[in-house]
Amino acid sequence: MKSGSFHSKAARREAASAYLLMAPAILLFLVIGLFTVLFSIGLSFFHMGHGSLIANAKFAGLDNFKDFLLGDDQLLSESFWRALRNNLIICVSVVALVIPVSLLISVLLQNIARGVRLFRTLLLLPMVSSSVAIYYVWTGIYEPSGLLNRLLQAIGWKSAMAANGWLGELHTSLPAIIAVIVWGMIPGTMILYFAGLQTIDSHLYESADIDGASFGQKLLHITWPMLKPITVIAVIMSLNGAIQIFDPIWIMTKGGPAGSTEVVSVVIYQEAFVNMKGDLGRANAMGWTMFALTFVISLISMRTLKEKT
Amino acid sequence: MKRGISAKMISYAILLLWSAICVYPLLWMIGASFKEPSEVFAGYALFPTGAWNWHTYVDVWDRMHFFRYFVNSVNVTFWTLVGINLFYTMAGFAFAKLRFPGSAFWFYIFLAMMFVPGITIMIPLYLTENELHLLNTHLGLILPLVNGSAPLAVFLFRNYFRSIPHEIYESVRLDGAGIFRTLFRIYIPLALPAMATITITNFLGSWNSLVLPMVMLNDSKLFTLPLAVLLLDSGVFRQWNVLMAGALISIVPVVLAFLFFQKYYIQGLSAGAIKS
Amino acid sequence: MKKNVWTKRNMIAFATAVLLLALTACGGGNEPGNTGTGASPGGSAAPKSDVTLTLWHWKVGFDPGLKAVADAYKKKTGITVETQVTTPDDAYTQKVTAAATANNMPDIYLYWSGPTNGAFDGRAMEWSAELDKDPAWKNSFYPSALSGTVIKQSQLDSYAKDKKASDWLKSRQIGQYYGIPIDVGSFYTIYGNAKLLQEAGVPLEAPPTVEQWLKDMDTVKAKTGVPGFVFSAKTFSVYENWMANFQDYMKNGPEEFTKFMNRESKMSDPAHLQVAKFIEDISRSGNLLKGAVTLDIDPSDQAFAQGKATYTLGGTFTLSSLTALGMKPEDIVSFRVPAYEGSKVPDAKLPSFPLVQAIVTDNGPHKQEAIDFVKYLTSEEGMTLYAAGALDVPSVQLKNRDSLSPILQSMIGSIGSEANWYADNADTYNKVFGAEWNKFHEMKQKIILGSATAEEAAREFDKAAEAEKAKE
Predict the structure, then answer these.
(1) Chain A residue with minimum CA distance to B139
(2) Identity of the residue in C293, C433, C468 whose CB atom sits nearest the CB atom of A164
(3) Which of B212, C93, C306, C354 could form a disulfide with C181 if both were Cys (CB 3.0 to 4.6 A apart)?
(4) Per-residue confidence (pLDDT) for residue C2, from 0 to 100
(5) Three-state secondary-structure class, residue A117
(6) Which one of 1.10.3720.10, 2.170.190.11, 3.10.20.520, 1.10.10.60 gives the CATH number of domain B54-274?
(7) Chain A contacts of C7, Cβ < 8 Å?
(8) Is C52-185+353-424 a CATH 3.40.190.10 domain?
(9) Shortest CA gap B1–chain C (Å)
(10) Are A282 and A275 in contact (CB under 8 A)?
(11) What residues does each domain of chain C span?
(12) Which CATH number fits domain C189-350+434-471: 3.40.190.10, 3.40.50.300, 3.90.1150.10, 3.60.10.10?
């Protein structure tokens, strides 16, 4: 009993220290984070027209959610579901492209003898220069007479050219956008993998070499399992990025042509700030639906990836 | 041996190709900033075919009042980084080394913030800052920027502190050092690579932050560099050369910081990200 | 106990650090910004005032004009007016909406023109008493400028029908003004490349009908290989609100046009099918520049200026962009959007309407000074300074335009001064921003890309309009 009370006293002191250490973080979270978030969630149950005062917001119950989820507002609902489908396509392709390409590049980078630093710097540049301006550059590349079409023409693949530009055809616009998103996301993931590779014990590879393992075998049986925790993080971050994606689409296509690149955050933005007939409450309702979805998808992918280990 | 060389060559070829794809847009920006406005989208050449138009940079430098906006950006970014590194090393340490009720709860709360939809909370955030009299101040940018970095910072610092052998913690504690002393004297000095990683990641986010200052700041004397670049967008039509020159000037500090901290950044990532 | 000492010391260090952080950051935030406190050395003649007014707007191009007016005003009254620009449009909307919600508005702000636009449930002051007090001032405006700003019965009807309209909106009265127009302008203008037209032997005069205009495009295309038309098909409302609604009004007259806008007539009806058909025609004939669906307004102007298309669609404000892009005024022809053959009102005058209005915050600390400044801004003197600096057509009929640049003078000259049915019915033609028109925008892009016909687009539009009507 004696030792128990001593233990609990120490435990209490440890807990007090812990909360003292976390006090600034928690305080900031409560004031800036939690209050704002609760406010925004609350707003999703109200109607608040463009330019209306918060005091004049009208209680809407679940109407806002019904509007876009169940089709009470037919047009908004159509956009929402189409946007969600586009978001899912982006999610799947981003993960399917970013992960293997980043892994490949970082492994190549690890394996070359000279110029590692130079290449690493060059490959990280998209991360540093990822400003709004970059999306305008991509817009220029995709133009009808832009770099991509000219390259195809030069190598004689005229049939593959996009007459209205790569952002201007219904079937090429989304892939073109995805390419830009992937391009922007690879450096971050690549550097994660690159950092991870540094921690793998080189003895593992040496003994595999002695056993006569091929490059592919080593990748599959040593590198990939050792990097699993990184893959989990990379997948979750890419998924989150892909679901919340906004800037490149808003700048490059505004969701067009004919809604082919519309994503949920674009629908939300239009509803909240562009459409004069928009409803801030509805925009928040869509935002939190998106939050719930991202959360669930991340949990599922975390579980599945961890189980597979 | 022969096979080894050809594999290397393939590696280099792929890396070169990918590097070209990575660098092209930046080269385009540089090229465009030296062109005449009408030439930017007209020709096929990456760089000006005629004379290089240095005048744009001079013009932008004067019009941007570069120094003032630079100081503002430094002020915001510096205090954001101080806040992040101070607050979340402490929190990360608590999560990694101390046992306390609610530990898991708070950890997941911080992580879940990562998924909060940025677009919808802007107006609620504005209302909050209005109540706290933070509008039109740099502190009103710093606090949300610090809070927004919490998910990644808490996660990374927790993992980093966990990766440090527990024996160190035990021996320091047995010597009679308090928790705060252990943290500030032993752990924080060891955490420099992790701090470099967090610093670089958030340097980018805070330096390039656009929508937040746009909504929260009114007084142009308080504007940060990205807002200044937007002001170059003259109403009549978009002068691409001017915009690109402005954008390039504003990212120079980021690139320099990046080149400088790169090594530590990767070290910090290696230790912080992997052991979860 | 040593432990506790350390803990305490660290606590103090930490608290100091946080305090320092807060102080420094705040210090950074509160730089001496209020320089407006009458620091005019030696200016003994200049009146002094401690008042500083804040003016928000979103047009970088307008800023020199507004600043010129503010400078002149300071010399006159000693009152400082600080202009603060936020771009682009949607960021400005976001900012003003947030400020209105928090009841945190500047003394004066500019907003897109229209009755109750930017009034934010009474944040804005109501001007009718001020206007009635000063008839000379009221009469100096273009009639269309004021008639596009005042509340009319039709607005009240649409507020009453709108489920989401606030109680404040529903209780407005006819004759109220919530903003003062500072400029006027028009859309519905076609610009043509005179060099290409001459090369193809097409007359430079305005084509009498759309049908003839399409033939002209074919001629130029056959002779020079240059496609006929470019407009920003990426941007919602450029075709719909700058061209299609006005053409439908000319074709069908006020009554049928109103029915169409009110979702009582269908686009599939031959009377209105031309809205979609025109897009189909120019796309199928190859007269629409390839990639028009990816072009924003600026790049579309740019494509025209580079001679990639014979005609472009714009407004009175487009001319200055085109000249800024390097086109010579003599190489540009311009005419009102042509009417279809057999139109009921083919001679409709180019309507003008206010584009931007100045709003004074009702409960601001310096409301009277703000009113005075807006009155000065819209005086002959203020408007002349503004027009010259902003290259914008003022909302007031200037008596003396000599000091203005020739291009601005010609822009002012092209503005119809008299009010007309179309300009008076802003709430009718503005229905083109309804959700069914957003659907049409999408279908328009499909027509252009060859994955829908005009008839299909019209049917989709009708379905959407019906769904919207059911909600009324």
Answers:
(1) A32
(2) C293
(3) C354
(4) 38
(5) helix
(6) 1.10.3720.10
(7) 17
(8) yes
(9) 52
(10) no
(11) 52-185+353-424, 189-350+434-471
(12) 3.40.190.10
Partner-chain contact A259 C442, CB within 8 Å: yes
Residue of C430, C462, C87, C104 whose CA lies nearest to C268: C462
All structural domains of chain B with their residue ranges: 1-53, 54-274
Among C14, A236, A21, smallest CA distance to B158 is for: A21
In chain C, whose CA is at the least distance from the CA of A57?
Answer: C166
- In sequence order, the 6+-apart residues with CB closer than 8 A to the CB of A267 are A76, A79, A80, A83, A255, A286
Q: What average pLDDT does the structure give for chain A?
A: 86
C94 interaction partners in chain B (CB closer than 8 Å): 122-123, 211, 214-215
Percent of chain A residues past pLDDT 90, beyond the cut: 32
Higher pLDDT, B216 or C132: C132
Give the separation between CA A16 and CA C267, rounded to whole angstroms: 71
CB contacts of B8 in chain A (<8 Å) are 111-113
Touching A: which chains, 3+ CB pairs < 8 A?
A: B, C
Interface list for A 59-98 with B (CB within 8 A): none
Does any CB of chain B come closer than 8 Å to the CB of residue A19?
Answer: yes
- Find chain C residues with C-beta within 8 A of A279's C-beta: 164
C52-185+353-424 and C189-350+434-471 share one fold: yes
- Count of CB atoms within 10 A of residue A11's CB? 14
Q: Which of residues 242-301 of A touch B (CB under 8 A)?
A: 244, 246, 265, 268-269, 272, 280, 283-284, 286-288, 290-291, 294-295, 298
CB C355 within 8 A of CB C142: no
**pTM of the entire structure?**
0.84
- 8 Å CB contact of B222 and C321: no
Checking if the pLDDT of B1 tops 80, the result is: no
Query: B122 vs C30: CB contact, 8 Å cut-off?
Result: no
- Taking the CA of residue A72 and the nearest CA in chain C, the distance in Å comes to 9
Q: Which of C12, C19, C24 to mutate to test the interface with B (most CBs of B within 10 A)?
A: C24
Instruction: Indicate whether A227 pLDDT > 60.
Output: yes
Residuewise pLDDT in 10s, chain C (472 residues) = 333 434 444 444 444 444 444 444 433 333 333 333 334 444 445 577 889 999 999 887 788 899 999 999 999 999 999 998 887 777 788 888 888 877 889 999 999 998 888 998 888 999 999 999 999 999 999 988 998 899 998 889 888 887 777 888 899 999 999 999 999 988 999 999 999 999 999 999 899 999 999 999 999 999 999 999 999 999 898 999 999 999 999 999 999 999 999 999 999 999 999 999 999 999 999 999 999 999 988 889 889 998 999 999 998 888 877 877 778 888 999 899 999 999 999 988 888 889 999 999 998 899 999 999 999 999 999 999 999 888 889 999 998 888 887 777 877 877 766 667 888 788 888 899 888 999 999 999 999 999 999 999 999 999 999 998 887 7
Chain C touching partners, 3 or more CB pairs below 8 A? A, B
Residues of B in contact with A131 (CB under 8 A): 208, 226, 247, 251
The answer to whether C449 contacts A169, with C-beta atoms less than 8 Å apart, is yes
The number of C-alpha atoms within 13 Å of C191 and in the hemisphere containing its C-beta is 30
Tell me if residue A134 falls in helix, strand or coil. Answer: helix
pLDDT, position C16: 46
* Residue A275: both structure tokens together: 């459409």
> DSSP assignment of C199-211, as one string?
HHT--SSPPSBHH
Which of A56, A173, A261 has the highest number of chain C CBs within 10 A, making it the mutation to test binding with C? A56
3-state secondary structure at position A260:
coil
The number of residues in chain B equals: 276
**How far is A167 from chain B, CA to nearest CA, in Å?**
17
Please give the ipTM for the structure prediction.
0.84
**Angle of helix A74-111 versus helix C435-448 axis, rounded to 10:** 50
Tell me how far apart the alpha carbons of residues C156 and C158 are, in angstroms, rounded to a whole number.
Answer: 5
